[in-house]
Amino acid sequence: MQVWICHHELMRIGLLSDTHGFLDQAVFTCFEDCDELWHAGDFGSIEVLDRLRTFRPVRGVYGNVDGSELRAALPRDLAWECEGLRVLMTHVGGHPGKYDRRAAQEIARVQPDLFITGHSHILKVVCDSRSGLLHMNPGACGHQGWQMKRTIMRFKVAATQIASVEVIQLGPRGRSSVPCAPEVERLAVDLRLPKRMH
Prior knowledge:
Elements: E1 2-6, E2 11-16, H1 25-30, E3 36-39, H2 46-55, E4 58-60, H3 68-73, E5 77-82, E6 85-90, E7 94-95, E8 98-99, H4 101-110, E9 114-116, E10 123-128, E11 133-138, E12 149-158, E13 161-172, E14 183-186
Parallel strand pairs: 1-5, 2-3, 3-4, 6-9, 9-11
Antiparallel strand pairs: 2-12, 5-6, 7-8, 10-11, 12-13, 13-14
C-alpha cells in the first residue's frame, strides 16, 4: 500500500480505467486542463503508462491483466489525501453492497471518502452512506470488454469536496468503429460526501 498527500487549492482530476493497451487520442484532449490523471488499473501495456506520465502526473494501480513490468511500477492499492479528501484506489474492488472481501478490509482500514475501482467496465458513481464514502468507477476507455460505450471522467476536488463531475463518452467499443467527437455529460446528482455511520 502506497500513501501520498497532495496539496493545492483546487485539483482538476482526469479519471480513467481499463485501457487494455489502447489510449484514445481524445483522452489527451479531454484531460488537457487536468492537474493529475488517476488510472484504476488494467493499463494493458507499460507504453500506456509512459504516455500518460509524459502528459500529466499519474496515480495508478495495476489490474488483473497487467504483467510483471506494470506490477513492478505500480501498487495493487493506493491511498492518498487530496485537498483533505481521503482516496483509496484499487482495480478489483466491487461496489457498495457488493465489495470484494479484500477491498472491504482496506475500506475499513483506510476509511476513505472516495473509493475508486475499475475492472467491471461499468460506469458507476454511487454514495455509500453505510461506509461514509463516494464510490466511482469510470467504466472502460479501451476497446476490450463488453461495454457498449468507452468512458472516462473529470471532476474537481477542493476543500474535501468533489464537484463538477463529468462523464465523457469516447465513442462505441470496437476498433472498427468510426471515430467520433467525445460527448460530455455533467452528472446531476448530489455528490456531498455521506456522513460515516459508526
